[in-house]
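Can't paste images in this forum, so I'm doing it all in text. The chain is below; anyone willing to post the predicted structure tokens underneath?
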Amino acid sequence: MKYRFTRKQLAIPYALFLLVFVIAPLVVIISYALTGSDGHVSLKNLAGFFSDPNTMGTLLYSLMLALVTTAVCLLIAYPVAYALAFSQIKRRSVILLLFIMPMWINFTLRLTALKEILTLIEGNLAFHPFLNSVIGMSYDFLPFMILPIYNQLERMDKSLMEAASDLGADRKQVFLRVTFPLSIPGVVSGIAMVFLPAMTNYVVLEMLYNSTYIMGSLIGSYFSAYDWHGGSMISLILLALICIFTLLGGGNKEENARGGSLV
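Text version of the structure:
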């Protein structure tokens, strides 16, 4: 006897997963964020976040760290992805694999090795803690920037660039008016995969020198102190920032897919 499942039935396991592991925790976070210690609805946690200089300073530091890390990853990843996508090497996948292989190594081992390298370098050159943070974050998140950009460039219709050249565009104009606009969805995806985790992934920085305080460690300190209301509000604010960033990044998806204008 054959069993046939409809699409709605096949979606039930995923819907249950979302309900238990996404929606239910989010409801708990929202309920704690919008209530006080007495259980009544209150915006005290929200006001406390924006009035506390420590939390605002941590937010600004996290934003600055995430912005610089994302910029460094983008400056390194785009030329690498471009070279791989348009190279004539037959086994480009092997070279791409070299950039992915560090992700297969244990996270702790990679950061421990990086810490030893930075320690040796700092014997002759004293690095600022912020610079160390950028190096650590960039080292960890660089593959997440390379892959989406490479995938976008790889599946690009190369005939569009040939057409632009036939119409009189030089290599610079072809890149600025055809190649780069078509690659923007991959760039936006890579930025989202680097910028958002860089604001909260305090484990990387904690393993480097056990002192950096960013939004992830701030949230952890609130929950460690059993202040679920304050920690939930900070988590909710970060979620709002993520949603805003995602909406801004995906607003021009249709235009980017067309590759912009050649005029």
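Residues 251-263 have pLDDT under 50 and may be disordered. The domain at 43-258 is CATH 1.10.3720.10 (MetI-like fold).
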